[in-house]
Each structure stands twice: as C-alpha cells, then as structure tokens.
Specification:
The chain has about 240 residues and is α/β, with parallel strands linked by helices. About 40% of the residues lie in helices and about 20% in strands. The chain has a single domain, classed as Rossmann fold, CATH 3.40.50. The protein has eight helices and seven strands, in the order βαββαβαβααβαααβ. Helix 1 packs across helix 8 (about 200-215), helix 2 (about 55-70) packs parallel to helix 3 (about 95-115) and helix 3 (about 95-115) runs parallel beside helix 4. One of its GO terms (molecular function) is oxidoreductase activity. It comes from Amycolatopsis jiangsuensis.
Length: about 240
C-alpha cells in the first residue's frame, strides 16, 4: 500500500510550510504550491515545490498534471493559498477587491474543481478560512464566503465519501504579518490578550489539519475547527 499523498496550496511559508513538514514527517508524499519562496522554501528534498498562482486556471491545470504524474491520486487537498488586503471601505479599490476574491474564493473553488478527479473515496479537503473581522469589509466578505462554500461542498461530496472541513486560525505568528508592517512588539502584545497567553505558531494549525485529514476524523465533515487559543470564546452570566 502506497503512502498517503497531499497537495498543499500556499505551502512555501507559514501555515502551509509547517503542514507540509508535519505531514512529511508522518510519511505523506507531499506537493506544495506557491507564488513566492519557491526556490528557497527549505522543505525536505522529496517534497515537490511548484510555482503556481491560485488565480490562474492554466497554473492550476499544470499543478494537477504534476500531481497526477507524481502521485496518481490524492488523499488530502489543503487549500491554504490566500492573500490579505486589509483596509476600510473608503480605501478599498477595485484591484484590491478583485485580488481578494480571485485568490481566496475563486482560487480555492477552481483548485478543488480541477483536483477533484484525483480525490478518491475517503479523501479529505481542508480549507484555511482565517479571520476577516476587523480587517475591513472586503476582507470580511472574502473570508466569509468560504464557510458557506465548505458546508455546501461537504454535502455535495459526501456521496463520494470525500470530507470537506475548514480550519480557522486565530493570531498565528507567520511571515504574512511582516509584509503588512506588523512589528514583533505588536504581535507579542496581541499574545497577552489571548486566553492561553500566546499567539499561535504555524505548527498549531498544521496539527489541526493533520487531524482533519486523518482516519480519526473520518466522521467529521462540513465543520469549522477554530484554532485560536481561546479568542472568540465567550461566557454567559
């Protein structure tokens, strides 16, 4: 019996890279995609790294062809590619709006559509949803579109015994914050507000993805696993 196989979009840094490393350590055959950091991702030698833009359908066709040739079929599709364009409605232009939906919604939708023939019975799809609230209306709309999509796909693909779930990270210490101008001091101060007392690490999300992909989660579909250190948990009374 061959080792399980996984395709991870947005897998050259942060959460995607940590997930690739974890799955590889557990015996998975892994392929990752990314638009940057492809040449120096620093992943194990036998992890395939493919440059691909989630917004480009020809790029997606190339990824699927390579996955088919390398693995034959896939046991896990981790849809992790995404971008951030935070800002209030007054400063959100058409380019930023389109970029958010093209990558975070269209990209995920068509990646799954094209990969679907490679997903057999018992396969798992996991989608990174992430936070949109507090980052502007366009970010909230783009991220908010994903959870209904996950639930709908879970029902549509259930007859094929393909499970579809989401993982929603809280504040995770990834290189993405640096690109947005967030300082280390700011991240550390955010950690003080987290009930568990720290910001999350990419490995925290990787563990959740590995769980959702495992046989242990074989009766879980259409769900959103929040990994936030307790942010968003409220008590009544």
């Amino acid at each position: 019996m061959s080792a399980p196989s996984a395709l991870i979009t947005g897998g050259t840094s942060g959460i995607g890279k940590a997930t690739a490393e974890l799955l590889h350590s557990r015996g998975y055959r892994v392929m990752v995609t990314g638009v940057s950091g492809v040449a120096d991702a620093g992943l194990p030698e036998d992890v395939a790294v493919v440059r691909a833009d989630a917004r480009s359908l020809p790029d997606l066709d190339q990824v699927v062809d390579q996955a088919r040739r390398r693995f034959g079929s896939l046991d896990l599709l981790f849809l992790n590619a995404g971008i951030s364009r935070p800002g209030p409605i007054e400063s959100t232009d058409e380019e930023a709006f389109d970029a958010l939906f093209d990558t975070n919604v269209k990209g995920n939708f068509f990646t799954l559509q094209k990969v679907l023939p490679l997903l057999g019975e018992g396969a798992s799809v996991v989608v990174t949803v992430g936070a949109g609230e507090g980052l502007g209306a366009a970010m909230t709309a783009a991220k908010g579109a994903l959870l209904p999509l996950v639930r709908s796909l879970a029902l549509e693909l259930a007859p094929r015994r393909i499970r579809v779930n989401a993982v929603s990270p809280g504040i995770i210490d990834t290189p993405a914050y640096g690109k947005l101008g967030v300082t280390r001091e700011m991240i550390d101060s955010w950690g003080e507000q987290v009930p568990l007392g720290r910001v999350g690490a990419p490995a925290d999300i990787a563990g959740a993805v590995a769980f959702l992909a495992s046989d242990t989660a074989s009766y879980i579909t259409g769900q959103n696993l929040t990994v936030s250190g307790g942010i968003g948990v409220h008590t009544n009374g």
